[in-house]
Specification:
Layout lengths: L17 H8 L3 H35 L5 H28 L10 H21 L6 H28 L3 H27 L10 H33 L2
Helix pairs in contact: 2-3, 2-7, 4-5, 5-6, 6-7
């Protein structure tokens, strides 16, 4: 709830769960681990974004002959290192979130998210040593979607538990934006079927829409993680 006198004041807690009020009022080891986990997940996300920016920048610089091929290969090594570290931070952060108290009603969501992500990671690691059928790649993609959706639902439930309905609503908005991206991607695939040609295929416009929505989604996601962590640690 916003302060009517100061509309820029932080939202006040609304209908906070009694246990949440008790834990947020005093240091809680379990919620503290959740807050630390959210911080690690956010750091992993920022690192992944930086890695993509490095790769894109290096590719452009290579095409313009601003860097040598050897330098580009070094950038690739740095890129993969950043992606791996970012993935580790994300997974460790989610594991810390497993300490979420049962009273939050969010345990099922976070356990599902972590479980599906671990299985997806297992498929990815297996593919490095053993050729896998295309169905395995499709399964991995599905697992990644389930992991992302259930984690957002976890954040929504956590926001409701601590009385921050504004944070819960922002989590729902992330799901809506994700659905929009999925729909546009499907449209992009359909419009770019073999045989569809033109100076500016509609599918490329769809791709541009996806990139814009993805950028907005990432910014809102990282912001939600930061605000959720702050709400847990400060109790407001």
């Amino acid at each position: 709830m916003q302060d009517p006198i100061n509309p820029y004041a932080a939202p006040a807690a609304v209908e906070m769960h009694p246990k949440a009020a008790e834990w947020l009022g005093t240091p809680s080891p379990s919620l503290g681990r959740v807050a630390n986990g959210l911080g690690l997940i956010r750091s992993g996300g920022i690192l992944a974004i930086a890695a993509v920016a490095l790769l894109v920048g290096g590719n452009i610089a290579g095409q313009q002959r601003l860097i040598t091929f050897d330098v580009f290969k070094m950038l690739l090594i740095v890129f993969f290192g950043m992606v791996i570290i970012g993935g580790i931070l994300n997974l460790v952060g989610k594991v810390l979130c497993l300490s979420t108290p049962q009273e939050t009603g969010a345990q099922g969501w976070i356990y599902t998210s972590v479980g599906t992500e671990v299985i997806s990671l297992g498929i990815q690691l297996t593919s490095l040593f053993v050729p896998l059928p295309p169905t395995a790649v499709q399964l991995q993609g599905l697992l990644n979607i389930v992991a992302a959706v259930t984690f957002i639902l976890f954040l929504r439930r956590l926001g409701l538990f601590i009385g921050r309905t504004d944070l819960a609503q922002r989590a729902v908005m992330l799901l809506v934006l994700g659905a929009v991206m999925f729909g546009v991607v499907v449209l992009f695939i359909v419009l770019n079927e073999p045989g569809r040609n033109g100076p500016l295929p509609a599918g490329y416009i769809g791709l541009l829409v996806v990139l814009v929505v993805l950028a907005v989604w990432v910014v809102k996601y990282l912001s939600l993680l930061a605000d959720m962590k702050s709400a847990i640690l400060t109790g407001r």
